[in-house]
Design goal:
The structure is a single chain. With 429 residues, the chain is of the alpha+beta class. It folds into four domains: 67 residues, 3-Layer(aba) Sandwich (Rossmann fold); 92 residues, Winged helix-like DNA-binding domain superfamily/Winged helix DNA-binding domain (Arc Repressor Mutant, subunit A), CATH 1.10.10; 98 residues, 2-Layer Sandwich (Beta-Lactamase); 66 residues, no CATH class. Helix content is 59%, strand content 13%. The chain is built from eleven helices and twelve strands. The strands form three sheets. Strands 8-7-12-11-10-9 form a six-stranded antiparallel beta sheet. Helix 2 links the parallel strand 1 and strand 2. The chain is flat, with a radius of gyration of 48 Å. The two termini are 92 Å apart.
Length: 429
């Protein structure tokens, strides 16, 4: 018996750390003990006494089965493509394909996760985590090389991951162009729709205000008329000049005169807003429609003149505006793109030049300088970079000069040592 732990406890500890084959040899042969052993994920249970030959055969069978399983796990396949993970070999249609270590690791990751989608950043984190300054384009480069060597497109790239998106991610010009274009389009569209929405309303309010002013001037004239027929004539002249609609009611609500042949309703439920004016004027209004009532006295009787503005011109103007909106939007779109191209290039051109100059300086090429006539921060940066380039060039020239002088002095000392050694040896002889 084992101290402090039994065989079942040993099996439990082993299974937590390894999947090594386990055969339990024990004198406990009852069914309950055997079932408990298999619960600990043992491979076989042999009660004592046992035959050594049988034991060896069972061990061989377990090892043979595990070997086949391991071989299957180390062999990855897809269509006519197969990969021997342990042997570091890739075969396509029976022919071996030579891959680099990163290409092999990338292809292995894809074969082990068939159907799974990986982003470029996920691949970088998996395969290039130790490289701090690696660019994301290296993934595309390795995928391109794998496709070329296999002469087949086993690795599918998402349609969304296009060259345009990659350019936007890696280019300041593209980012600035996109941001400027979107901003301009949004601002212009907001302005267009705001004008299309509020210009007709403003125009209608202006017409209504002008009509009310003219109607207020008409009321004293009507009160001075000698008869209703004269009032009708005056109202007719008024509507002809203003292109408005007017009608006269008596105290009983009967329509005595109408400037058109349309049926005029006096249903108060159809009125959007009703206000009492201090001058006994009743005003009713809608979004693009204004109707006002003016009370006047003629020959001792009270009458009401109702005036309604003409909405035809307003509706025509509104329709014309909305018809031009698509053309305006199209023009805004192209103008935004043109302006964004010019603007982005204007901003990024000196930055690109500075970047090129810095790259050449990193290669110890100090001859080319960035030319900038700007007085802003970019101009200051360009001047500073030019000064740095000149200083580095001057310092490097001095170091070369000092190095040459030092080499010359060392050469002289060596020659002097050789002469002294020759004199010394000659004196000895």
């Amino acid at each position: 018996m084992l101290p402090k732990i039994d065989g079942y406890g040993v099996c439990e500890v082993i299974r937590k750390r390894s999947q090594v084959p386990i055969i339990m040899l024990t004198a406990l042969s009852d069914e309950e003990k055997q079932l408990r052993g298999f619960e600990q994920q043992i491979d076989d249970y042999i009660p004592k006494p046992f035959s050594p030959k049988i034991l060896l055969c069972k061990i061989a069978a377990i090892l043979r089965r595990r070997t086949v399983e391991n071989q299957n796990q180390s062999l990855l396949t897809y269509k006519e493509l197969s990969m021997d993970v342990d042997g570091f070999h890739v075969y396509q249609g029976g022919n071996e394909v030579v891959l680099t270590s990163k290409e092999f690791a990338l292809l292995r990751l894809m074969l082990e996760n068939q159907g799974k989608v990986f982003t470029r950043q996920m691949l970088l984190d998996r395969l290039w985590a130790e490289d701090l300054e690696v660019e994301d384009r290296i993934v595309d480069s390795h995928i391109k090389n794998i496709r070329k060597k296999l002469n087949a497109d086993y690795i599918k790239q998402s349609e969304v991951d296009t060259e345009l998106i990659r350019k936007i991610k890696t280019s300041l010009t593209a980012k600035l162009f996109l941001a400027t274009t979107v901003l301009l389009i949004l601002v212009c569209l907001l302005s267009v729709f705001s004008m299309a929405r509020y210009i007709p309303q403003t125009y209608s309010n202006r017409l209504s205000a002008e009509l009310q002013k003219q109607a207020n001037d008409l009321v004293p004239v009507l009160e001075k008329a000698g008869s209703l027929e004269e009032c009708y004539s005056l109202v007719q002249q008024f509507t002809a000049q203003t292109k408005a609609t007017a009608y006269i009611e008596d105290d009983y609500g009967d329509i005595l005169y109408s400037s058109d042949k349309l049926t005029i309703t006096t249903d108060k439920d159809s009125i959007a807003t009703i206000q009492e004016n201090p001058d006994s004027t009743i005003i009713t209004s809608d979004e693009l429609l204004t109707e006002a009532g003016y009370v006047f006295t003629l020959l001792g009787s009270d009458y009401t003149l109702y005036v309604q503005s003409d909405t035809v011109s307003v509706n025509q103007a509104t329709e014309a505006i909305w018809q031009t909106v698509p053309l305006v939007i199209l023009g805004i779109f192209f103008m935004s793109i043109l302006f964004s191209v010019i603007y982005s290039r204007y901003i990024t051109k000196p930055i690109i030049e500075l970047s090129s100059t810095s790259q050449k300086m990193a290669q110890l090429n100090f001859e080319p300088h960035g030319n900038s006539n700007r007085s802003d921060e970019i101009g200051i940066l360009s001047d500073s970079l030019n000064t740095l380039s000149d200083n580095l060039q001057h310092t490097l020239a001095e170091l070369k000069k000092s190095n040459s002088e030092l080499e010359a002095e060392i050469s002289k000392e060596r020659e002097l040592e050789k002469k002294q050694t020759g004199i010394f040896l000659g004196g000895i002889t």
